Amino acid sequence: MELVQIEAFLEAASRGSFHRAAKALYVSQPSVSARIRALENELGGPLFHRHGRGVRLTDMGRKFLPYAQQALEALDEGKDLLRTAMLDETNVLKIAAARGIGTYTLPGILEVLRERHPEIKPHIAVGRSRDVLGMVVTEDAQVGLARELTHPDVIASHLYDEEIVLVTHPDHRFANREDVSISDVAREPFILYDPGSAYFLLIERVCREAGIVPRVEMRLDSVDATKRMVELGLGVSFLPRSGIRREADQGSLAVIPLAPEYRVTLPTCVLVRRQQHYPPGVLALLRVLEDMYDKHLPFLQQGAA
Question: What mean pLDDT is reported for the chain?
Fold first, then answer.
């Protein structure tokens, strides 16, 4: 049973004529006759009495009529619902960000985006970098901001390098040093932020290569909690510079230079699923990122094509 058959049946029932139904549908009368005949064959009996002056419904046709009307009305409602949903979603931009990026970097990006495109409605999800990658792969997010990760279905383009810095209480003995070695840090009570994060994995690698094991005395799940413990003088920690700028400016935390061989950075990327065309909201955000970080995003021209 095809939609064109239902439409032909309803028009003929309403107008009492295959000829008038054909005119309403902008098809030939033989085409309408063929569609109704095919429908009758599928249903197993005649739907119309044919006579010289036109057609009228059989008893079978009258019984089938309300169901055909309901079917067409349901399809029309479905079309209207999709049109409304598409209009609502046109300006929705789904962004996923790693925790630190979402807390300390994304707000500035969204501020610029809002100034340029106030019609765009960002929907934000935050998780670890691997969670962000997963959301981009499954299309639960249109754009991801995370540490450098790879997947065959995702394009990752470098934006900036996040510096990981050693932070202490401002009265700590390291505060007056020009730089400290990783072995000096190993003797301090260490406050660990998010053991499963890219930050931790990077610091763990640096310590392992230096042949030391840090004295981990606290394991916390947020940068803010970690900062608070360091401000209380309960230990030292490695944190992203973007997360401690305000405290460093206010003097409640001290940023301690590491010896050059132990200074580390974490690449930060924008992640977008590979596809031929990108929605306007995605392209708008990518252009904002290009301008903010003075980058050329190679897939921007591809998506705009």
Answer: 87
Buried-exposed string 133-158: b where 16+ CB fall within 10 A, e elsewhere: bbbbbeeebbbbbbbbbeeeebbbbe
Query: Are 224 and 106 contained in the same domain?
Result: yes
Q: Which domain holds residue 182?
A: 90-305
180 in the same domain as 32: no
Residue 83 confidence (pLDDT) above 80: no
Domain boundary among 62, 83, 104: 83
Q: What is the per-residue pLDDT for 18?
A: 93
Looking up residue 102, the CATH number of its domain turns out to be 3.40.190.290
Q: Which of 194, 196, 236, 197 is nearest to 219 (CA)?
A: 194
Same domain, residue pair 34 and 101: no
113 and 65 assigned to the same domain? no
Are residues 49 and 156 located together in one domain of the fold? Answer: no
pLDDT digits (tens, 9 = 90+) for 219-237: 888 888 999 999 999 999 9
Helices 241-250, 223-231: inter-axial angle, 10-degree rounding: 30
